[in-house]
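Reposting from the mailing list since nobody answered there.

I have sequence plus structure tokens for a pair of proteins and want to know whether others read the tokens the same way I do. The first protein:
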Amino acid sequence: MILASDTRTNATIDPKEAAHFGAMAAEWWDPKGSSAMLHKLNPARLRYIREQVDAHWGGDTTRFTPLEGRTALDVGCGAGLLCEPLARLGAAVTGIDAAPENITVAEAHAAQGGLAIDYRACGVETMTGQFDLVTSLEVIEHVTDPAGFVRGLAGAVADGGLLILSTPNRTPLSKLALIAVAEGTGRIPRGTHDWDRFLTPEELTALLVAAGLRVVDTRGLVFSPATGFALGDSVALDYFLTAVKD
């Protein structure tokens, strides 16, 4: 999930973070493994992305491939949990991640599914070209320079394109739920989060605006023991932001 940084640029990642997620590569596609929480998050993530894609490009909400003819970049892609659905939605997908172990697993899994996804072990700072859709979900809280990271993301968005981010909010609820409960009970690996690195929606919005983007939507990610993760009005736990490059 973590971005690599070229030595020619300002580093935006902590090498320990890359190693942490790389160590989980072999279990990434196991819905009961160390990345189980990401599997549970994916339906809500995809619902949000589909809504934003349809709203931005005026798509037919019943169409199976709303991203056909468009390019997409997933930054901090892990082993491809988001890249593969984006490819099935019709996009020409590139996925980048700091951990080579993740890229190896991602390539093998995509090949098994007959999906042509361009995976690279690199950082957004080193990418050339621009993309219609850029996603980076649950990644920015792991970088050492959020402002520099956002500038890199903004530079990868084509004119008229979309950037979609998600990240935990820095609130008492997120500290309790993600660290005390989720990490404390082993539902996610210990050391996954540093609460002090979480950004509020206002802080992340300011970074996006400073990078030349316009925020068009903010939505909460909520959790219920009965229904699991879903989109909602409360941003106290986790949230999505969509920004456009006009």
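The second protein, same order (residues first, tokens after):
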Amino acid sequence: MKKSLQIGGAYVGIIVGAGFASGQEIILYFTSFGLKGVYGALLAAFGFSLVGMCIAQVSSRLRTTSHKDLIYQISGNFMGFLLDLLLSIFLFGVAVIMFAGAGATFQQMFALPVWLGSISMVVLTVATVMLNVKSIINIIALATPYLLTIVSIIAIYAIATMDLTFAEQAVIAQQAQISTNSWWLTALLYMSFNIGVSFSLLTVMCGAVRNDKVAGIGGIIGGILLGALILLIHLSLLAKMNIVIGLDIPMLALANEIHPIVGLLMTLSLLGMIYNTAVGMLYSFIVRFIEPSKSHFKRAAIVIGGLGFLASLVGFTTLVSKLYAVMGYVGLVLIIFIVGAWIRGIKKSDG
């Protein structure tokens, strides 16, 4: 059970980046639909659990060491090549975005130069990537209970002190809607995008787990925790929509409203989420090309980390962020292939 909890915690840690934890993504994809966002959160939780279980079990059966091992087996050579290419570009791109995000956060919090914040995150990320995969899972998983605690405190406070009814707040929340899609389609697209984000590290993590049942339970636990976080953040923001509408980091605003110390704890949580995502993306990107057991793995981590730092300074993030839209559809294709492979009961002996 301990291993399943670690996998579940790490699954959450990879997905809950700064956009999720800040509340910005939750407003766009869930809260803007008012109380229907609750249904969206439940649907996303079901999807995260089901697909997380499938990825975890298939990866465990195939003993995957990178996403490449899995993709080519479940989707064939041509589609495998396309998905592998897109995922690899995306992994590096998201790592770069996290480095840039750390720089911006350091500048906003401590009035430090952007480059200093970015390079600090790069150094910390590269140092973590040099550890073995079990240590990386443990580190990423540690942040999950901390974030759940902070978000629960904010949710209780927000609901206890709300000024308007949920129905009145829902009218205000509709101003944040970015598309005409229904609540259920928006929730599914959000889930599929994040499956694309977490897919590579999940395959690496669960490929190292010998018992596919343990791995599968980890995927289910992670999905349930993700659903709980979405629901808590959604209710927190909906309760205070008249205050947080239009803010860049709404959850931080609510945390500061409780007490500056809670605000500081939330800020540390945001930095922790940036770090988690950066580690997950950079490690998955490097192991796609170089096995961790190779002598030049650590040198490669330093070089690629350095390139990521340079890219974060030259506006590369603007270009890469356009991949986010593509990634939602890549995630949907991955979901179809992985669930199909799970239903077929694909195993190591298959290829």
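Reply #1 (J.P.):
I read it the same way you do. The radius of gyration is 19 Å.
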